[in-house]
Design goal:
The protein is of the alpha+beta class. The chain folds into two domains: 60 residues, Uridine Diphospho-n-acetylenolpyruvylglucosamine Reductase, domain 2 (2-Layer Sandwich); 227 residues, CO dehydrogenase flavoprotein, C-terminal domain (Enolase-like, domain 1, 2-Layer Sandwich). The chain has twelve helices and twelve strands. A hairpin with a 5-residue loop joins strand 4 and strand 5.
Length: 329
């Protein structure tokens, strides 16, 4: 049995107290919500915070709320199970939440936790003993990335299902610290850097996700993984489409997940969809274009070649479902 390292535990009574304590303790402290990712990482000694600040009692961070202007605000402590069942969030977001891990994990895993997941890699997500025996990689304090030894960067991949959806939906994230608060676009929250995949400061807490008015958009998310449950994505396609009264696509957003250290916008594919009536031929062509952005490495489940082959298949499925979602509205 792999045990947790020793740490000091604090239960935050409110957001202000959590932010103040996180700022005072500095890099030696971290916050926890559901703990479904943090505690396994602590057991593997990938991170060893001296203090863990529990946000579970901060009720102001829970729930899904609809504003008078049609925007949807999702508290960071909202569980993935609650998000998947919400009738007011776009289809793609509910789908993505329902595809994370297993029903048991979705009951405790949170929106904020999934959007703040660390990058993953087969060389890194092992026990400490395994990593020592194999030789520590760049992300683990070594001096080489075993996925691409001739390079000088870490190629660990973004493993969040909600991340590409948040980018495709043009969501905004609210970050709070003892210094104040700020709002960033979802795309700006993720850095294409396997070592430091998030742009938020160490003393900031993700508190809320805000979605723009969702009316007249069709959205969808499709996920590739070995098994139907538990597994992290090894490819994900999130699509949001808008059409005019004549049925012509006037706006498109396509975000690809689990192939790089951050979600990838397939802007060429978006451009090909705009101006079309979303017929099968147009979707197949745009999906093939989206797949050109996919250059996976052998650092996740299944091989990179298979993931490359599946990219246009899953991108096309997401585009077709997003188009169908327009009709459903």
């Amino acid at each position: 049995m792999i045990r947790l390292p020793a740490f000091e535990y604090h239960a935050a009574v409110n957001l202000a107290a959590a932010a103040r304590l996180l700022g005072e303790l500095g890099p030696s402290a971290t916050v926890v919500a559901g703990g479904t990712d943090l505690f396994p990482k602590m057991k593997r000694r990938q991170t060893e915070p001296k203090t863990v600040i529990d946000l579970g009692g901060v009720d102001e961070l829970r729930g899904v709320r609809t504003g008078e202007d049609g925007t949807v605000a999702i508290g960071a402590l909202t569980t993935l199970r609650e998000l998947a069942a919400s009738p007011v969030v776009p289809r793609a977001l509910a789908t993505a939440a329902g595809l994370v891990a297993s029903p048991q994990i979705r009951t405790v895993a949170t929106v904020g936790g999934n959007l703040c997941l660390d990058t993953r890699c087969n060389w890194y997500d092992m026990s400490d003993e395994w990593r020592v025996a194999a030789g520590r990689c760049l992300k683990d304090g070594g001096d080489v990335c075993w996925v691409a030894p001739r390079g000088d960067r870490c190629w660990a991949v973004s493993s969040s299902d909600l991340a590409p959806v948040a980018v495709a939906l043009d969501a905004e994230l609210r970050l709070v610290s003892a210094r104040g608060e700020r709002t960033v676009p979802a795309a700006g929250h993720f850095a294409d850097d396997g070592l430091a995949p998030l742009t938020m400061a160490r003393d900031e807490i993700l508190t809320e996700v805000v979605l723009p008015r969702p009316h007249a958009w069709g959205t969808a998310y499709h996920k590739l993984r070995r098994r139907g449950d538990i597994d992290f994505p090894i490819f994900g396609a999130a699509v949001a489409l808008h059409v005019d009264d004549a049925g012509v696509c006037t706006a498109a957003r396509v975000a690809i997940g689990a192939v790089a250290s951050a979600p990838v916008r397939a802007r060429d594919a978006e451009a090909e969809l705009i101006g079309t009536r979303l017929e099968p031929e147009a979707i197949e062509q745009a999906a093939a274009t989206a797949a050109k952005h996919v250059r996976p490495f052998d650092n996740t489940d299944l091989g990179s070649r298979y993931r490359k082959w599946m990219a246009p298949v899953y991108a096309a499925r997401a585009m077709r479902d997003a188009a169908a979602d327009l009709g459903a509205g």
